[in-house]
């Protein structure tokens, strides 16, 4: 194989070399620049939805999303200019005021603080929507809000099956679940973005329960969700009970016990119990995606009782 | 294939193929993540052809579904071959260079005109022609099969018939082209590679013919190895029937429910002097046992390796402590050996692996450390500088005949339909398969709450359901020449008239193996799960309650 052609760009004054075809984000990461991302994932096609990865590209009118913009010879990029900081701050403020980001993990918290996001300045949160109200919101029926409370997407959690729940109070509309369910991986197309503007939401056809939809429960939407809006039922139950404790958790990579494809599984375990299964994004068998058996078919090892009883040799010989 | 029992290419290469042919494989449900690679191939422009009696969820993605009659695979293959040869759509260079037996093969398929093919297979001549021309014109053809090919009384011939087509098109030994048997279980490939087959030592070294290999193993193991093939599973059951096999140790299998003609199987297991079962859960087979060894779950409670369909050896790791009393298979085996007078000490999986790679040349370069570091390696991996092999048999293309070695042989094959005959008394043909959310006899999958589980009905074509005045959910008695069960009816629009379908997933609700036939392939010992003649009669819920 011939050596890949390299491209030379300037990042915050430093010269950075990346191979041809790489994105600006690839270059920033290679150069060690901590760049926020929400809608980007290595195993999905960039959709440019969240805009937190934007950078200033010299000569360009607008800020450019680094996750999808290819590096070109001679580009001059600023990642920490006032304009970039302001854009990122605004995104984290708007998301922080309208969406529950509390299960996002440490990155989002760090970035929000770094850019000085103050979600509270939009006022106290508006009351949550009643069950189903956001599912059926139509465009064009809005009154201007009074401005005394912060509009948000808070709503009851959807629990319509035993495998995973949808907590759309936590949904930032990054589109990752739609992409994973669609062309980027599963090609099942059970979900899409419905509605417009602030009423936009992820929905099954006619907002049907998952059990009445095209969903095949692969959970590949869970695997890509950055905010904990989509979580396995077991993880949800632990969090609800207040017993979810990262200090008691391990993640072990192994191989699925079912068919012969050899999918890598990451078993997330707390108190000797598997509560979540994911797959490494960078493994070329799965690219981070699994089927229903790989993601949820582990329960049989956790319901074994009386193993000790059957260990003893049966005394009466063969049963008749 | 050609001396090594493994797929010739890799999943990732399927994404680069221009023609993908799934033959007797419903990968969308049985190998879903492999099918993701097929979908990428389709997105990259590949044409997908699916050969299957059922219009499966895989077939729904196909450019062309080839709905052949059950058990006519060789007839279809021969017809495709004749059409390719007659139309000049064969890879002359590869046939001349890398194969043997072409002339006899060409003669043998000559009578298989499109018209005759249509008559025998039920596939319209124009459809066969379209498939033949697509495969013949493919630059990078990938062909994959599963149990639709191998669960027949002539399983080996079926496989050889597909290999013939791959050779005709030169789709072997090149990157991005190849043939892949998709393995049904996470270590079927590894089991064979390790020597858990009757005729080979680890690494496909012949136990009868390869004296040097035997000597190598004897030196390390410190025991003589008999130059004698063991029994296939079918032969074992025959030996049980004749009373010459009296003690059986079943490790991680549930033959009482997974074997064809289940009643006979259970009778034979019950008649043994001693039946020992090692398993993770108390299976129906374990219920019959004199001694049960509770085992830890290999994939999440132990350390070790498994090998996937693309020959990739990967590490399994311990994430959970096994329940009290359940032990690692290695420890159980070592303890039993100690009781029998062979003290191996406390062997670890890593030690076993490091020993293995001194004995198996194709694993020689896979140190435990490299398996960890590289996240799996595809055999052959002859030394520690090798990154493993994405595809096999490049040698067949070498200009130097000496380097080409033994050429890939074409096989002359006769069509032979299913053993179980369709008669007025048994007018429907029952075939079996998997559904997406379930697995084999359901021992492991029924423990999780799948919202899409529907694993026990008898599926009928809309036409047959109407002819029998049956609606979804009604109870029926299903009878074959071996036995009879009662279950519910469901309608499947992917079935053609005359064809019925069941899974093996719910033997406690509806045991399809009471119906299946154990006509077996003489070479591989695989049973004809895919073709049983049945009769279906409506029955009252009262009768259903009294199963």
How are the SSEs placed, and which strands pair?
The complex is a heterodimer of chains A (320) and B (547).
Chain A: E1 6-11, E2 14-19, H1 24-30, E3 54-57, E4 64-65, E5 76-78, H2 82-98, H3 106-114, E6 164-166, H4 176-181, E7 191-194, E8 201-204, H5 220-224, E9 230-232, H6 233-241, E10 249-255, E11 264-270, E12 273-278, H7 292-296, H8 307-311
Parallel strand pairs in A: 1-5
Antiparallel strand pairs in A: 1-2, 3-4, 3-5, 6-9, 7-8, 10-11, 11-12
Chain B: H1 11-14, E1 19-23, H2 27-30, H3 32-43, E2 47-51, E3 64-66, H4 73-86, H5 92-98, E4 99-100, H6 102-109, H7 114-121, H8 125-137, E5 141-145, H9 147-150, H10 155-168, E6 178-181, H11 188-194, E7 200-201, E8 205-206, H12 211-221, H13 233-241, E9 247-251, H14 255-258, H15 262-270, E10 274-279, H16 284-287, E11 291-294, H17 298-301, E12 304-307, E13 312-316, H18 329-339, H19 349-359, H20 368-374, E14 377-378, H21 401-404, E15 408-409, E16 428-433, E17 458-460, H22 462-467, E18 475-480, E19 484-491, E20 499-503, E21 532-538, H23 541-545
What can you see in these coordinates?
The complex is a heterodimer of chains A (320) and B (547). Chain A is 20% helix and 17% strand. Chain A has helices spanning 24-30, 82-98, 106-114, 176-181, 220-224, 233-241, 292-296, 307-311, and strands at residues 6-11, 14-19, 54-57, 64-65, 76-78, 164-166, 191-194, 201-204, 230-232, 249-255, 264-270, 273-278. Chain A folds into two domains: 1-127, Ubiquitin-like (UB roll); 153-301, 2-Layer Sandwich (Alpha-Beta Plaits), CATH 3.30.70.20. The N and C termini of chain A lie far apart (67 Å). Chain A contains eight helices and twelve strands. Chain B folds into three domains: 11-177, Dimethylsulfoxide Reductase, domain 2 (3-Layer(aba) Sandwich), CATH 3.40.228.10; 188-378, Rossmann fold, CATH 3.40.50; 428-545, Beta Barrel (Barwin-like endoglucanases). In chain B, the strands form six sheets. In chain B, strands 17-19-18-21-16-20 form a six-stranded mixed β-sheet. Chain B is globular. At the A-B interface, strand 10, strand 11, helix 7 and helix 8 of A face helix 3, strand 11, helix 17 and strand 13 of B.
